[in-house]
Amino acid sequence: MTLVEILTHAVERGASDILLIPGLPAAYKISGVITREGDRLLPDALENLVREAYALSGNRSMDRLERTGDDDFSFAVPHLSRFRVNALRQRGSLGLVIRVVSFALPDRTVLGIPDSVMSFASCSRGLVLFTGPAGSGKTTTLACIVDAINSTRNLHVITIEDPIEYLHHHKMSVVTQRELATDTTSYDAALRAALREAPDVILVGEMRDAETIKAAVTAAETGHLVISTLHTLGASNTIDRIVDSFPPEQQQQIRTQLALVIEGVVSQQLVPAKDGSLIPAFEVMTVTPAVRNMIRESKAHQLDNVISSSAADGMISMDQSLLQLVKAGRIGADAALGHCVNSEWLRKRLALNS
Length: 354
Known about the structure:
Helix content is 40%, strand content 25%. The protein is of the alpha/beta class.
């Protein structure tokens, strides 16, 4: 099969990811379950598929893959879909992991993204973080937030992504999308450059290191809305992860800066639904004076209690979100318990609900 045939089959099956690894048949992840189809792919055949992927991306050079062993890029197949690609070397052979990305921007109501999450699209300044494990739908949520800004506000939005997945057309806003390696060298460099590009909103695909975090916080301090992601789960873990990225002598300074600019932390994960699909569960932390004090005074471990008891401020914990989904009949109790933070708390609530 050619790569386009594999991609077409994946789109027709509703796959989210395609795994092309030497020695295995083509594997498709559908609603979180990996299924293998067809004949085993030998190294020579896979190398041809890799070369086809590079050809589809505008004859992109394979130098980076050959030099470092991996490469990230994206491309579109007309009338089919967009695809985010990671080309890699494993056991001396080449492989591909491909994410299927729809041409159409996602519909947040169909996905189940609540108003409490979408409300961050109305922030005028500060830092808003979307967190969760890889594959939890953070990029899709960010696309919904950017589209909401683009549809309702007259701003300049700059996105810095690795790679670009969803394409945003200019609506009420002007949206400038920059891709790492293609348009800029690093998140840090692009962020510093963005401050000279008259931005109102800056989306940073991922805060990978202390330099990027520092640049993002500085951008938020200077009156911009900065939106980014981290691979953490929970607001307290997110704050600790940011602070721990810095050497001890700088940690109190970053806590103080973070306390001033942070506007919200949204954590999400995808949970198997009763109908076989995947549904997002969200923890939402809005920022109150009490939250700012806890961050400043190194009491991030107390944030979980604040989130659980601050529904009036638009907050909800992950376990409360899971409980709501169980009560609504969207997910089963076992799925909720498999994704919760405090299983004892959730078991008691589920027992009361039964």
